[in-house]
Amino acid sequence: MFISKEEISLRAIEPADAALLYRWENDLSIWNVSERLLPISNFEIEQFILNSQDIYAGKQIRFMIDVDKNGEKVTIGTSDVYEFDAQHLRAGIGIYISSGYQSKGFGKMAVRLTEKYCFEVLGLYQVFCRISENNLSSIRLFESLQYKQTGRHTGWLKFNGQFIDQFQYQLNNFDFNLRENHES
Fold this sequence. Notes:
- The chain is an alpha+beta fold.
- The protein contains 7 helices and 8 strands.
- A hairpin with a 2-residue loop joins β3 (61-69) and β4.
- α1 (18-25) crosses α3 (42-51).
- It has a single domain, classed as Gcn5-related N-acetyltransferase (GNAT) (Aminopeptidase).
């Protein structure tokens, strides 16, 4: 366990996670969110796991999201910190929660833990996310965490033969601290 709160924790990715990641990454139903066009191989997953834990070298890091279910840790998703920029002190956040665990508050808790890592460990000034206009649950999630919509790419993504917009949301460390102090 790396960082935790209540029944949820973020931890480093392990080789034992390869089969689960293979299944999630090759799930066609989420390719529109991840912007994938091709399946990913077991070899690629294994290489990613072995080479992805230095955020300064790879500009990204992935955490596994675990929940405590009847005293046992169950992996329910991933939290990605991507496009890490050490000069401008910013990074993107991406969350994946597997279907059986969505809409239960785990995504919100995972984002908050990821923010904590970004602001308190990495010392970032701001975090951001990019969300397609049709991903209403993610829009609601990030807006509930006081992210501000700061950009809109018009017709940016092709989805089911139509071009849709993509929004950018941001949260800076000042607003993060205000929110955290207000809620504690």
